[in-house]
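name: query_chain
kind: protein
chains: 1
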Amino acid sequence: METPPFYFSPAPASSRYATTSLRNHPSGAGLISELVDHSGIVTPLSSESPFYTSWSPEGDSLAIHVAGQRLDVRRAEGTETILTDTGLFQAPVWVDRGLVTLRSVDDTQRVVLWTDASLTDLAEVEGPVGFVAAGDMIAIQATERPDVGSIAAGLRTQLLPTLPGGKLVTIDLVTGTLRTVSSELALLYQWDESGEDLLFATLGDEPLSLAWNVWSDGQSVEIESFTLQPPWFRSLVPFFDQYAQSVRFWSWSGDYIGYPAVRDEEPVVVIHPVDGTESIVIPGATWVSWAPAG
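structure:
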């Protein structure tokens, strides 16, 4: 019996009409990743798992993180394996300057930028890592706090900065500058389209609540707190770095965010202006994403 897809990742709007999909293997063991084009033709990509994918900005290449250790790049002319030691992360992310990923080197993990020509090491990091990117900016968080402090670790390598554990940090791909956004654990984070403003959610003051914050020009401001919908939270948060590439909280103008919440014990979707003016509430809704630009 065929299984329905539970995740889609459309190619950029400027490219061909295609999407990747992910579904459970009919045998119950593993996952199947497929490419669906505009005519409905389905092309299997792989039956290994897990899968995390990222389209190139032009939509002509697809990065696939396969089985937790291998990173492939698939193009029309074939598939190339670019890494076989990818470290503790889930989803790679492609930006104009290249593909942001992770690799293991000796006993270290390194955040790297891959282009067709080379791999450039950006920083060292310990433990499981999640990251998102847009424009020239990466937002990254390691969930473990390493025993060795960032200064000592930096002296050990003498070449690469070491990202502090348990903090949300940005890396500028142009300058290499690292900046700390938040010392609190961020459960979700996503750049606006420009890569200038970073939306992130921290734990709220009440049970089952989160607080949305926006980091811009080096300053963070809490813009809204809300009671979360547990099914949405359970589906999204464990894989947020992948969903951040296909489910958009930000409007394309950067003026609004949209998210599921609970108000008066009922599920709603909230469209919240970033400037703090009155929200629009859609009753009975459980999922939201902004449509692609154009």
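note: The chain has three helices and 23 strands.
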